[in-house]
């Protein structure tokens, strides 16, 4: 929370004068970012009787939504999920199948950094090409 919540507010403040997205897209991005992961966790609790995601993941996606807008939420989730699948799959292969949890936050951070430091058109073309 000490890092994620200021990041959320900074994203909202930066976009009051549209820097990465419009103010309304930033607000909606924060709400959808949190809401989507909150809903996934609620479904996990209902179906599996345990948390599927931590609350920090929802707050982090809300912060990324505030920075990049609601339109980038699917891209951020897809990039993070692909990275987590590849790295997590390698980890399971290397260490053997164990009942461990792989933190999703670092993959969200990497997806956010890729989005920030690369051309948005490049990301969209690459993702939709696959």
Short recap of the structure:
With 130 residues, this protein is an all-alpha fold. The protein has 6 helices and no strands.
What can you tell me about this protein's structure?
It is built from six helices and no strands. The chain is mainly α and 130 residues long. The longest helix has 26 residues, at 23-48.
Key words describing this protein structure:
130 residues, mainly alpha
| Count of alpha/pi helices | 6
Overall mean pLDDT? 89
Any idea what the shape is?
A: globular
Radius of gyration of CA atoms, rounded to a whole number: 15 Å
How many strands in all?
0
End-to-end CA span:
34 Å
Q: Helix amount, in percent?
A: over 70%
**Structural classification:** mainly alpha
> Could you tell me the strand content as a percent range?
under 5%
Largest sheet: none
Low-confidence sequence ranges: none
Order of helices and strands: HHHHHH
Write the topology of this structure.
Elements: H1 4-14, H2 23-48, H3 55-68, H4 73-95, H5 105-117, H6 120-129
């Amino acid at each position: 929370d000490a890092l994620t919540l200021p990041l959320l507010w900074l994203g909202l403040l930066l976009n009051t004068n549209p820097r990465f997205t419009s103010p309304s897209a930033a607000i909606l991005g924060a709400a959808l970012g949190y809401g989507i992961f909150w809903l996934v966790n609620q479904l996990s609790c209902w179906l599996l009787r345990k948390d599927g995601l931590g609350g920090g993941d929802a707050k982090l996606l809300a912060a990324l939504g505030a920075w990049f807008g609601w339109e980038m939420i699917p891209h951020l989730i897809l990039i993070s999920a692909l990275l987590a699948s590849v790295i997590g799959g390698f980890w399971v292969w290397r260490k053997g199948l164990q009942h461990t949890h792989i933190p999703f936050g670092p993959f969200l951070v990497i997806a956010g950094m890729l989005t920030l430091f690369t051309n948005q058109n490049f990301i969209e073309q690459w993702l939709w090409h696959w």
